[in-house]
Amino acid sequence: MAETPLNQTRIPTVIADELHIVYRVNGAKSGKGSATAALSRILKRGEERGVRKVHAVRGVSFTAYRGEAIGLIGSNGSGKSTLLRAIAGLLPAERGKVYTDGQPSLLGVNAALMNDLTGERNVILGGLAMGMSREQIRARYQDIVDFSGINEKGDFITLPMRTYSSGMAARLRFSIAAAKDHDVLMIDEALATGDRAFQKRSEARIRELRKEAGTVFLVSHNNKSIRDTCDRVLWLERGELRMDGPTDEVLKEYEKFTGK
Amino acid sequence: MTASLGQQSPDDRLSRAELAAKYGLSQSGARPGLFEYVRQLWNRRHFILAFSQAKLTAQYSQAKLGQLWQVATPLLNAAVYFFIFGLLLGGRGGMGNDMYVPFLVTGVFVFTFTQSSVMAGVRSISGNLGLVRALHFPRASLPISFSLQQLQQLLFSMIVLVAILVGFGHYPDLSWLLLLPALALQFVFNVGLSMIMARLGSKTPDLAQLMPFILRTWMYASGVMFPLAPMLAKAHAPAWLADVLQANPAAVYMDLMRYALIDGITQHNPMPPHVWALAVGWAVLIGVIGFVYFWKAEERYGRG
Description:
- Chain B: Keywords: Cell inner membrane, Cell membrane, Membrane, Transmembrane, Transmembrane helix, Transport.
- The structure holds two protein chains of two kinds.
- By secondary structure, chain A is of the alpha/beta class.
- Chain A has eight helices and nine strands.
- Chain A has a domain at 12-24 and 53-103 and 184-189 and 215-259: P-loop containing nucleotide triphosphate hydrolases (Rossmann fold).
- In chain A, strands 5-6-7-3-8-9 form a six-stranded mixed sheet, with helices on both faces. Chain A has a three-stranded antiparallel sheet with strand order 2-1-4, with helices on one face.
- In chain A, helix 3 (119-129) crosses helix 4 (134-148) and helix 4 (134-148) runs antiparallel to helix 5 (166-177).
- The longest helix of chain A is centred in the C-terminal third of the chain and has 17 residues, at 196-212.
- Chain B has one domain (65-300).
- In chain B, helix 5 (97-126) packs antiparallel against helix 9.
- Chain B starts with 15 loop residues before the first helix and ends in an 8-residue tail after the last helix.
- At the A-B interface, strand 1, strand 2, helix 2, strand 4 and strand 5 of A face helix 1, strand 1, helix 3 and helix 6 of B.
- Strand 4 of chain A pairs antiparallel with strand 1 (26-27) of chain B.
């Protein structure tokens, strides 16, 4: 927030209001999952028996402003990724509401890509899936390929993606995902893909995306990368917002909590 | 919040909902209005087309013969039905090979178009949860895209069909142009039906196990391998049953396609009255119902 002049009114971009998210898991209640158990579940309808509920986010409220980079921390299974998905409008809220400016997007396009297609076609397919136009993709195509470095060792972009090494595939996926500009960008850790050189390049690209985006959310277990990139931190524990404040304060408490 | 310590802003007194309204924030994940939804879908038309073509290409990319299977699969299907119904069971209703083979192959291809659209529709949401949970796009893109994939598959099959027609002495003429409206109507019907199945299948994935049986019943009841009216007359079925079966959408679209392509087929397989009205009616009815029904649950796909 240091760059923001003090007298300027701050423009909210994401508002979460008493947000609750509940997952429903089919057939997880009766331990065995046998045919008879399934049958009795169907017969005893009514009160949604046999459906187990997981209350992943419990009453989280916060307001994020333009220009902020917000870190999300908390132990595994504390609801960080779920919260991101809810902000992106990909998971419906059980109770409460999320208001956003424009369409927030998760950084990631993996699900739209197909291993049987060439890298070339995947660049186009992934771009279209993220909502880019054909012209935008054509304009950025060469940048995406160069950034991924797929063609450094020969003409690999015209081969099916299943022939790539896992590192190469991960690099191409990141390059496609990072090709689009976003208003509200959400990054769910695991950015450390590819070799050292590629990691450096992708960190630089993330910083660029942050500059272009209105607001950035970063989920990470790496306190250093949170400290480097975020000026505000939300700490989630068991689905509840435990702390919300400047990075240093929250990280100090969090490190005390995790016993470091 | 913490960053505005000591500073009073008029915004602090607003509730969160009021704050959102003041800055024009919209509710995330809310269902858009019907017309807005149509507009969003139209904006995604390139994705819908690219996704259907990608699926089509990926389907046979591991096979040695590759895309040749696009044509070989429907041909083998037709051969199996010819062997069973044309030769073994004698269900040809007095048609010679020059009539029966085009009759059968047209029926198989046209019915397969609807059948595979429905099967792909059931799985279009439940089988693509990763996509639904990661990216933002109007979910109707998926069932539409899968139906479009089947339409392209059918166009491959048409190559085989034309070869068979010409081989049995049915040469292209003006009536072949009727194929285009018939195909368009069937496509709209298929999209509507697969959107209904997509919503049902997203709630109850078990439908994917059940559907093959329902579809097979539908196939036998629609006269894919035998002329419906003469067969029912031979079996002394009541007249209303014949009317109902002949008015069912699968039978209607097959009859139209056969009428367009095969000269003199109506002697063996008379068409029900008002067949074009039925074809349009089914397309509009199922198309509209399917679209609205699917849109009604737009914000709930991908839950759980």
